[in-house]
């Protein structure tokens, strides 16, 4: 049970990092500087500080953990992308099963390293946050993820409706073409 709880917490914290730093990275200025991103990061940290009731010391430690995790995850994800591209090349080139297995094993190791980095971050954050703050963070992330899933469901419904519409239009056009002959 404790292992499941830790994995859920790690997953939620990973989502927080993805949302916080993925967006922050996308908000860098045209020169690649982090001015705009740093400002947004501080706003998010301030919001989290308020929602979780973090002390100034906790907020500073959390910021350090997030920055370190962002750097770690970037290099791990970059390696994973490189290995995925290699896998694509091997499959396209009809490489032997043993060559493909080697790349698959490397991808498995990449994912394990990512999971270990997330678990390490979880331990660090748990050492900073009180159980109540951990619970608030977990509930906040779960609520956010629920909203994202709801938005995704709506997009899926829209896509399905569009496909039906296009299929119907295509059938109508095909029937019309047949009648013209």
Main attributes of the structure:
181 residues; mainly alpha; flat; 5 helices
How are the secondary structure elements laid out?
Elements: H1 2-26, H2 35-52, H3 56-92, H4 97-128, H5 131-180
Class inferred from helices and paired strands: mainly alpha
Radius of gyration: 23 Å
Number of domains in the coordinates?
A: 1
- The N- to C-terminal Cα distance equals 69 Å
Shape: flat
Number of alpha- plus pi-helical segments = 5
Order of helical and strand elements: HHHHH
Largest sheet: none
- Low-confidence segments, given as residue ranges, are 17-35
| Mean pLDDT figure | 78
Helix fraction bin: over 70%
**Total number of strands:** 0
Strand content: under 5%
């Amino acid at each position: 049970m404790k292992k499941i709880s830790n994995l859920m917490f790690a997953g939620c914290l990973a989502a927080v990092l993805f949302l916080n730093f993925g967006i922050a990275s996308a908000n860098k200025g045209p020169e690649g500087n982090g001015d705009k991103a740093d400002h947004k990061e501080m706003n998010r940290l301030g919001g989290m500080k308020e929602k979780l009731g973090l002390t100034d010391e906790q907020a500073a430690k959390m910021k350090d953990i997030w920055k370190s995790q962002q750097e770690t995850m970037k290099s791990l994800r970059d390696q994973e992308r490189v290995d995925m591209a290699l896998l694509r090349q091997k499959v396209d080139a009809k490489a032997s099963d043993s060559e493909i297995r080697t790349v698959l094993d490397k991808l498995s190791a990449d994912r394990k390293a990512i999971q270990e980095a997330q678990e390490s971050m979880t331990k660090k954050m748990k050492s900073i946050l009180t159980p109540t703050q951990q619970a608030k963070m977990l509930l906040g992330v779960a609520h956010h993820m629920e909203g994202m899933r709801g938005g995704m469901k709506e997009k899926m419904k829209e896509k399905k409706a569009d496909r039906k519409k296009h299929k119907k239009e295509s059938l109508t056009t095909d029937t019309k073409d047949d009648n013209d002959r």
